[in-house]
Amino acid sequence: MISGLLAGSAGGTLALRWIDDPNNRLLIGSAESLPGSLGVLGLGPLAVTTLALVLSRKDRLIPALAVGGVVFMLASLMLEYKETLDLIRLDGHARNFGLFALLIALATRLSLLRAHWRTVSVLLIVGLVAWPTLVSPMRNIRHSLVSGVQLRNAHPEHQAFGSEFSRMGRSSLRPFATMAVTRYVTDHTGVDERILSPYPAAMSIATGRPNASGFAGLLHLRERTGAAYEDAIRYLEPAAIRRLGFAYVHATDSWVASLPTKAKLRLNDRDLFELVIRDGTDALYRIRTAFLRLDMKPTPQSYEALRQAVPVSAAVYLTKGLQLHDKLHLAFTLAHARLVETIDASAIHPLGDIPNEATGAPAPDVVVFARDLYLDPGDHGYPVVWWNSVAIAYATNPSIAPAIDPPPAGTDFAVRLSDFRTDENRVTFTAAFADRAPREWTGQDWLVVEVDDPPWDQPIHRKDDGYTLIGAQWFPGQIGPSGGMEVRRYEYDALAGTLAVRNAAGDLAPVLQSADGLTPGAWVLAVRLRRDYLQAAVVPIVKIVVSEAGQVTYNAYSGERSAALNPCPERMQQTPGCRNLMATAKPTSSS
To answer: CB–CB of 355/336 below 8 Å?
Structure first.
């Protein structure tokens, strides 16, 4: 990566900044307690390099290696590479330099010892380094000898599955259910029968039964849940369970409590589900034929509802703002229709093509937008066909009847423009900000983002997380969480790239700017709310069109522009900003 930067081939994919959470680098070390009164002490590259310097004598190679290790430690903390967010290779180089320095320092020190003490020291060092690698398989062998060898399904130990060394890039899984449920499955169900479970991977590891949580009808190499599984686990949808071929349902009390009322009633209906075993908070149900034969209207927010709402002949456009995994859910749900955009399937790496992927681009009959920070597609006046927590579909073809009421509008934060005036390339306006959720955001700024035009006004550029908008122009904000109403008068010039706000003296004072004027194209001036450094809401207020001749047209979005503050995206919930929010804030209206 560094050589690519020096050679100019890395381009804009490498950024220099302080990594947000340097603690995950584990430069000094870690201590981890394991089941069975065992523990593992990990030494990070900084600790190993320091130890090598302490043990070194006059050998100049050891300080040279230490300097190399420090360089890579700093690189791992300050370089962010687009294609490899964690920069594991830089951490690895730092560890290698430290280990080389330590090996040379130990060899120098050991060479000064007498033969007897040298042998004893080497054995102690080898034992200290090697025992974590040896003790885990030895414990597994002991468990197999005590419990007996079983050729059908192995009994899990009373600990989490997978490697305990999660910081080495492996993950741990919670044990599946209880031993009673596990034994019933292994003793009384066929080896090819599928079991719906909130913990599908752990269920497969514990029982050997096939995992049917992926994309229906497709083999893929990366563990991702498919749309049918989401319907089955969230709503107990009969169509989804039929499609995935489930024969049993593993139900925990917490999962049952999360189901809608109608799904709970179906689960408790003895004509639809037979309770075969219960052990504490876990139960196993056999799915009866009567349930599989149910022909009922699907839950409005389910993917099955979207499948039934879109006709076979419809052309569907999945807009660029959709997250990759969400777009795959939608693409497989709408496999019977015609998709007018190529879908990137790298999130699941399938062994096969996405069915019915279209190569042409006709005018779409249905357009699907992301619901996180979409820029008001409702302004186009198209009826809503379907929506859930991640996407919303509009029918651009009048022959497709709306099948669901539109989602409730967000009311956490609102902006209303008045006294809107244009003068050559400038526009002046008064903005009234209504803050109704002051505990759920921490700061505000202004963004000018490029949008596709016509006709959707959807943002074109997002950061690598697929979530945060990239602004061609950025200006710091003038308001903060207040729980009330604030009014400001602004002047904006798109070609000059300036924003001014009226101060207490009544004069327009310029705001710090971050970029030059806009190039020809379609743009949107938007108010953005932040949650620490995360994007919490975007409210578009003015559309800007710059012609090839340099003429600027401003159009204010009408009425009050309101938004719901988005909960932290699932993939970002372990960041400090999201952890702080989830620990202190109440659920938002969009959660």
So the answer is: no
Query: Rounded CA gap, 71 and 121, in Å?
Result: 31
Helix (H, G, I), strand (E, B) or coil at 331: helix
| Residue 208 near residue 192 (C-beta atoms within 8 A) | no
Q: How far apart are CA 525 and CA 447, in angstroms?
A: 6
357 contacts 380 by C-beta, under 8 angstroms: no
Report the SS3 class of residue 466.
coil
User: What are the CA-CA distances from residue 300 to residues 234, 307, 533 (Å)?
Assistant: 12, 11, 34
From the list 505, 506, 511, 477, the residue with the least C-alpha distance to 492 is 511
Task: Judge whether 373 and 566 are in contact, CB under 8 Å.
Answer: yes
Query: Which residues contact residue 357 at a Cβ distance below 8 angstroms, ignoring those fewer than 6 apart?
Result: 331, 339, 342, 343
Contact 435, 481 (CB under 8 A): yes
Q: Mean pLDDT of successive 10-residue segments in the chain (591 residues)?
A: 55 62 67 69 87 86 93 82 58 89 90 88 85 73 66 47 41 67 91 92 87 84 89 96 95 94 95 94 95 92 94 88 87 89 79 64 83 62 87 90 79 92 92 92 93 76 80 92 93 93 86 83 93 86 92 89 72 47 34 23
State how far the Cα of 337 lies from the Cα of 501, in Å rounded to an integer: 50
- Tokens representing 47 are 């600790």
